[in-house]
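Severity: low
Component: inverse-folding endpoint
Summary: output formatting inconsistent between runs
Steps to reproduce: submit the following structure tokens with default settings.
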């Protein structure tokens, strides 16, 4: 049973941002410092966090909770049926978006929150390798 009222839960859920998150900001600032130029949250299918249209690259920064990380993604104990269905829909949407971009010749890069938290610079090194190879 949820320990918040319906109205309190609604306020909590409304406060969750989908753009400009801490991990998204960390990645974009680090890439910018290294000289990569891109757009954030461009109006493209799937709302990629970072996109480079002229090079046909989209980068998604996936949180462990919302995207069902196999290592850290945990379903809440309250209302678990709802959350299980929600996370599964998110994973299916992620797969659909990956296939969409691949089918039109774009490179899709997905980064897990835990890799950013564990070692931001190593994660940025991996992204940079991908961006440089694409040239």
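Observed output (run 2 of 3):
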């Amino acid at each position: 049973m949820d320990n918040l009222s319906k109205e309190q839960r609604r306020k909590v859920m409304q406060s969750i941002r989908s753009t400009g998150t801490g991990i998204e900001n960390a990645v974009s600032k680090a890439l910018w410092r290294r000289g990569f130029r891109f757009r954030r949250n461009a109006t493209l299918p799937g709302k990629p966090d970072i996109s480079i249209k002229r090079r046909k690259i989209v980068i998604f920064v996936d949180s462990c909770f919302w995207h069902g990380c196999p290592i850290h993604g945990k379903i809440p104990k309250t209302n678990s049926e709802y959350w299980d269905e929600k996370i599964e829909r998110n994973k299916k949407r992620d797969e659909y978006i990956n296939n969409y971009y691949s089918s039109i010749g774009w490179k899709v890069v997905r980064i897990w929150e835990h890799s950013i938290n564990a070692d931001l610079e190593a994660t940025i090194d991996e992204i940079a390798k991908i961006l440089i190879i694409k040239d």
